[in-house]
Write a structure and sequence with these properties.
Aspartate Aminotransferase, domain 2, about 400 residues, alpha/beta, 2 domains, Aspartate Aminotransferase, domain 1
Length: about 400
Amino acid sequence: MTQSLENVHVTQAAARLENVRYAIRDMAVLAEQLAREGKTILYLNIGDPLIFDFRTPPHLIDAVEKAMRDGCNGYAPSLGIPQAVEAVRAEAERIGIGNIQSVFLTAGVSEALDICLTALVNAGENVLTPSPEYPLYSAVLAKLGTQPNPYLLDEQNNWEPDLADIARKINSRTRAILVSNPNNPTGAVYSRQTLEGIVELARRHNLVIFADEIYNKLILDDEPHASLATLASDVPIVTFNGLSKSYLVPGWRVGWGVVSGEAAAVKPYLDGIHQLLRARLCSNHPQQFAVRPALEGPQDHLTEVRSKLRARRDLTVAACRATPHVSCVAPRGAFYAFPKIDIPDSDEQFVKKLLAEKHVLMVHGTGFGQAPGTKHVRIVFLPDEATLTRAYDGMRAFIMEHYA
């Protein structure tokens, strides 16, 4: 027997969720409806290499399968299994990170970031986050009742952080600067000079730096990647990385954090991080056995991955620049482009209409944040060249039909 709705007590979601958005997955819901209607969707929205023609290195699968057969299916140590922790520490030291105070394994960089923000920021305080940004950053801050404090990435300067804007945005309630390098969604790789400027601001204002470097091995041009923590052994820095992107196992959720800085300055905060790590028990146990083989074993797959991505990046930039009302700063890392679109409609209207009419799925720039008065879309250029060509032909035709 059904109960009258007027007598039902409706359980409301928490008010904090009003500020939680994740445009990448939200757009996918619209695509799924079209797919159910029999439409073939060209997906340029999700950064999962395994949906396309990339495959996990076999020696990583072998390591995890062996761990499972050997019975490593119970809880792991809270910080991670010793061989994984040691491999991450060795990798960090190899690239030049000094004063390492802790290494810990997490369920992807997402959990690492969540734990480290939770251990640091109080309600009403703020964290400097890039604009545009990966939407998880603001989602976690919204959950914590804190405020994102967006600083601009300068499109006219290859999407480098605007140091003057960062300096202007620092106030008495700022606790940290979050840096994504290589950047999602722009594909920018920051110069050493810019990173040194960020370090100096953090040092001057006693701020923690969160360095999200998950794409550091996917540099597409002949230039080195400067890990932020290698530039300052005194400043508290948490460097995030993991296996998901470079080692093609996003579903395994293997990430980590490396905490560096002066021991006395970092200890109270580090104690809080460790407290939360213990409270959540551990990250995925058998998958941690892939960390050492990944970091210390064959790296041949990376050459192939970068070669594919370089060709697809070049195709993407050329297609954008050949399309009316579209301009694009060439990405130098990861597998994202963030072209600007000069149209009267909003970028959200643009991607929805493009999906409905041409079945090409991108994500609107407002889902990542952008400079006032600008409009962008994020493109994931992981698909093969033939798929990308069809998608870009569809975008060009759509623009010519609506905005020529």
